[in-house]
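In this supplementary section we document a worked example of the pipeline. Step one takes a protein sequence of length 334 as its only input; no multiple sequence alignment statistics are reported here. Step two produces a three-dimensional model, which step three serialises into C-alpha cells for compact storage. The input and output of this example are shown verbatim.
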Amino acid sequence: MLSLIRLKRLLFIIVASCLLYMSVKVGASPIVRIDGSSTVYPIIEAAAEDFQIAKRGAVRVTVGISGTGGGFKKFCRGELDIVNASRPITELEMEACKKTGVQYIEMPIAIDALTVVINPRNTWSKTMTVDELKQFWEPAAQRKINNWSQVNPAWPDKKIKLFGPGADSGTFEYFTEAIVGRAKSSRGDFTASEDDNVLVQGVASDMYALGFFGFAYYIENKNKINAVAVDSGDGGVIPSVKTVENGSYQPLSRPVFIYVNAESRNKPEIQDFVKFFMKNAAELVTEVKYFPLSSVIYKKNLEHLINNRVGTVFLGESEVGVDLEEAMKHEPKL
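The serialised model returned by step three reads:
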C-alpha cells in the first residue's frame, strides 16, 4: 500500500507533467535551481512540488542531491539559486564564495534528529553511549575495532559493518563533530553513500550493521530498521517529537538550512518560492517527518530575504545544542 507521502508524490508527478507540458506550449518557464543535502531534500522536494502546483506550471523548481559539500561547491560557483545544507556553511566554503563574489542569505528551516540505526535482529545494542559510538567511529578505530565485542564485551564477537553518509555530507560532518569531537574526523573503512536509501538497505540486510542518517529516512523505513537510544550521560533517549522538543535527544539534534544566493534573490521566482516555503514551512516540515522551528524564526527568514541580510551567524562551524533564536540575533559574517 502506498504511504500518503508517496501517493502525494505520484499525484504531483501527474499534475506537474500536465502543467509542464502546458508551460512548454506557451514558452519557457523560469527555473529555481536547488541542490545539496540529501537530508534536507525531502523538505525542499515537498515545498517544490506544492509551489509548482500553486504556480500552475508557471515556474519550474529543480532539486538535486549532491550532498551539502557538493552543493556548496556548485553554489559558490554561482550555479545554484539555493543550496540545501544539513550544517552551517564552513570557513572554506565562505572563502570559496568570497572569491567568486557569491553572497548568501542563511535560513534555518527545521530540526533533524540525526538517527543511529541497527538491524531489527540486533538485540544487544538497543542503547549506546556517546563513548561507545565514538569508539566505533573515531579515526583510531580504523582496521582495529572490527568486532562488536571490542567496544563492549557483552556484545557478540562478530564483525560490525558500518554505514554512513560520504565526506561531502553535512550529516557526516555533524555526526563526527558531535560524537568524535571534530568534524570529518572519522575512520574511513565504512560503506559511504550520499544516497540515504543505500544506507537504509545496508543496515536492513545485515544483522551486525550499524549506521546513521537523518530522522525522516528512519521513519520512512522503521519497518526495516530500528533506532538506537543514545545515552549522553542521563540514560538512553530515542529520537522523537517529544525528545527533540524537550531537548533531551542530545547531542544529535541539529538544525538544517537553506542558503539563498543574494543575486538570485532579485528574481521574482526566487522571492516567490522562498516566501511560499516560509509561510508553509511548519506544515511541510512536519509532513516529511522533520521538526519545525518556531514561527519567529520563519518570520526572521522572510525579513532577512526582504532586507537582503547576507552572511552567516555560525562563523564557519557547527554548534552542538545551539539556540537558534539567540544565534540569529548575532551580526552575520561573510
